[in-house]
Design goal:
By secondary structure, this protein is mainly alpha-helical. It has helices at about 10-15, 30-40, 50-60, 80-90, 115, 125-140, 140-155, 175-185, 185-195, 200-215, 230, 235-245, 260-270, 280-295, and strands at about 20-25, 45-50, 70-75, 100. A four-stranded parallel β-sheet has the order 2-1-3-4, sandwiched between helices. Helix 12 (about 235-245) packs across helix 13.
Length: about 300
């Protein structure tokens, strides 16, 4: 059966037949599209699609019809095996050309003091910058650990734990329908499962587990120990280092000091123009994987 699509937007026509990388972000001024536009230097179209679940939903819906569409999302709740499988096989139509950052957010990649100190806007030594990053991350350590517990429990409880009823003959009256609902064993089983996951003992176990992962067993965060650099909420830490410390100064031509998101973008742009040799490994690998796909003979 032939279907006819109507109401096609101009941007949809422009995207057809092109290689497009869809990322998280509310608009093209968001950090993810800004970073990736600089990284690829116009070599591929970058389009923001909102939050992670939107990007993944679109990937599942469109990739079959548009094999040159690629999708990139934050780490969020995904485990290492899920993430590494996508890096090993990307782009892969079997997983909807979906790639996941190894670090929690794209900003986490800018928390490397060796990389970040290369910015022409940096006004302190690499050692001072390292201390500022660690202080900012340590100040929110327990908040981030607790939020990881929340995120993972929330995701685990989204599973499809009960099926819909299908036999109309069993629902001939209001009383029959209510009785079927009340006798469904799945409600009791799910209630028990929820109680197990949110019990005080289980919450403490999960909290301790994430704390150990992030700190590597130390009382304070330090570089090279634990997984905090991957798991901390990088957006918050990066913003504090850039905007709430004396580490960076960015001014316009007339000497006006920049702040907030505009200041962060100028620092990011400067770093991404330093060349591939100094870029985070995941940045260059992403770039090489997609360029290799674009340059494949048709």
């Amino acid at each position: 059966m032939i279907g006819v699509k109507t109401g096609i937007r101009p941007e949809e026509v422009r995207l057809q037949g092109q290689h497009v990388l869809f990322v998280e972000g509310s608009d093209k001024e968001s950090v993810d599209p800004k970073v990736l536009n600089e990284l690829f230097s116009g070599g591929i179209r970058i389009e923001p699609l909102g939050p992670s679940f939107s990007v993944r939903s679109v990937a599942e819906a469109l990739q079959t019809y548009h094999p040159t569409y690629y999708f990139l999302i934050d780490r969020d709740h995904y485990d290492d095996s899920f993430i590494e499988e996508r890096w090993d096989n990307f782009p892969d139509s079997n997983t909807n050309n979906l790639l996941v950052w190894r670090r929690r957010e794209i900003e986490n990649y800018f928390l490397d003091p060796d990389y970040l100190s290369r910015s022409k806007f940096c006004r302190v030594s690499q050692g001072s910058l390292e201390k500022e990053i660690l202080q900012s991350a340590n100040d929110r350590l327990f908040l981030d650990v607790a939020n990881h517990v929340v995120i993972h429990i929330r995701e685990e409880l989204k599973e499809n734990w009960i099926q819909k009823f299908t036999n109309p003959e069993e629902f001939s009256t209001k009383e029959d329908a209510l009785r079927k609902l009340q006798k469904a064993n799945e409600f009791g089983l799910y209630s028990n499962k929820v109680q197990e996951k949110v019990s005080l003992t289980e919450l403490e176990r999960r909290f301790s587990e994430f704390l150990e992962r992030m700190t590597g067993g130390q009382k304070q965060l330090s570089f090279g120990v634990g997984e905090w650099l991957d798991l901390v909420q990088g957006k918050k830490v990066f913003n504090r280092v850039v905007n709430n410390s004396a580490c960076f100064q960015v001014t316009t031509a007339d000497g006006t000091a920049l702040s907030g998101r505009v200041k962060m973008k100028e620092i990011v742009k400067d770093l991404l123009r330093k060349g591939d040799a100094v870029q985070p490994r995941d940045f260059t690998r992403l770039k090489n994987l997609i360029i290799a796909r674009i340059e494949e003979p048709t």
